[in-house]
């Protein structure tokens, strides 16, 4: 990667850790996102609509399932996968979240917890995006406590499972073709995973309106009332919440990378604005307080990128632990919150106008900070690792 292809915000040139081929792929992705996605993001965010017509372009760009091995095709490195999530969020955290749900949570659940038959049935069409996936874990009355307090139930009835309950904040939930839904088995009180197809009787999805973060993501309330699915729809290798955590450990790393990208996007528009915006007869970038804000932002970006790079390296080696993923997610999204706030501050009043982009990063950071484990819950995972004592209620 030549010097002009490195992002200026990659102050320690972490991208140079990629192979030459991977660096070229990253540049190609960056150019695609700049040409095809960036011009659309503010209008989609303002309208709270997902640009479905871009899906064929995502397929052409080969953005799905690259982190898994398929016959005749090796997987990409975890590091390239992480930089891909970063580039998506650098342009639009909503788009990064869409792929995090479809590619990470839904497809990841199938790859990690599904049977060979289930993978053969769903993975090819999910990779081609003919089938869009969603992941139903969070509930209206259960977020942080969903592992122990899950209210959605599953009951075996002959050759069927019967689901009853509700899920909330389900990304892609309004238009997903297949949903990975978790419910507590009334027979053994363990959390199990199920594949629920759109249109199944007893299942409905309603869009959550009036969101002010990740507005392009179509979050839904899901309702299951005597929803009957075949016995073959149970994820074969999901028999407890410990199994669910196998997926969350991997995807929390992806959220951390998205937190880096969100910071990058806010930092880059702040730098550009500081160079062009004039006050008192000169660009504001020449004032000490503005340079202090930019230096603090760059410090957060650099520290966050360094942590996520190491997380990806540990993933590659098969050594990533739950507590490491939890620390990365909580730390990076906390720094993300700071960075986007400083960026918005630099813009003054213009920072609340969508045309300058920064307010979108500012709002979207709040969702990244909250989903896939709040900061507090992730710190308890880390705290248990540090002390050997559990502080969970």
From TrEMBL:
Domain Acyl-CoA dehydrogenase/oxidase N-terminal: 22-130
InterPro entries, alphabetized: ACX4-like, Acyl-CoA_DH_CS, Acyl-CoA_Oxase/DH_mid-dom, Acyl-CoA_Oxase/DH_mid-dom_sf, AcylCo_DH-like_C, AcylCo_DH/oxidase_C, AcylCoA_DH/ox_N, AcylCoA_DH/ox_N_sf
Keywords attached to this entry: FAD, Flavoprotein, Oxidoreductase
One family name in Pfam for this protein: Acyl-CoA_dh_M
Occurrences of domain Acyl-CoA dehydrogenase/oxidase C-terminal (ranges): 242-386
Names of required cofactors: FAD
Gene Ontology biological process terms from the UniProt entry: fatty acid beta-oxidation
GO molecular function, one term: flavin adenine dinucleotide binding
Keyword Iron-sulfur found: no
The Acyl-CoA oxidase/dehydrogenase middle domain, residue ranges: 134-227
Family listed: Belongs to the acyl-CoA dehydrogenase family.
Protein name per its UniProtKB record: Acyl-CoA dehydrogenase
UniProt organism field: Modestobacter muralis
